[in-house]
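User: Thanks for the earlier help. One more: Ferric uptake regulation protein. Can you show the sequence and predicted structure together?

Assistant: Of course, both are below.
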Amino acid sequence: MTDGNQALKKAGLKVTLPRVKILELMQEPENQHISAEELYKKLLDIGEEIGLATVYRVLNQFDDAGIVTRHHFESGKAVFELSSSHHHDHLVCLSCGKVIEFSDEVIERRQDEIAMKHNIKLTNHSLYLYGVCTNDECDHGDE
């Protein structure tokens, strides 16, 4: 049994072709932070006849089961990434949509200190930093 099949069973989900194919695609490094529409197009590109409604339904099931994490960046559309065991934050280019993951112990420690100062026990948090790429490879939208 593959890791993907085990992940599905562990989450209490039946192993179906759409779930397996979507999970396989999401395991590819270039498919992190991917929208349902982009995932649907990639499925069509590889000859999989899985409808857009099914892609949305599977991603919602994966989100509920903790297999993926849903993010709502400034673009307004949800993107998904496989849930990981290590916490990380995100830098997002407002022009081209590029997403960079990063971890910083100083930021993590400071967030904990601020929460303690205000008598809050953190259970979860997300940090998104927005800006514009400064390299020539960025699309820079309508500039």
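User: Great, one quick takeaway?

Assistant: The longest strand covers residues 68-72.
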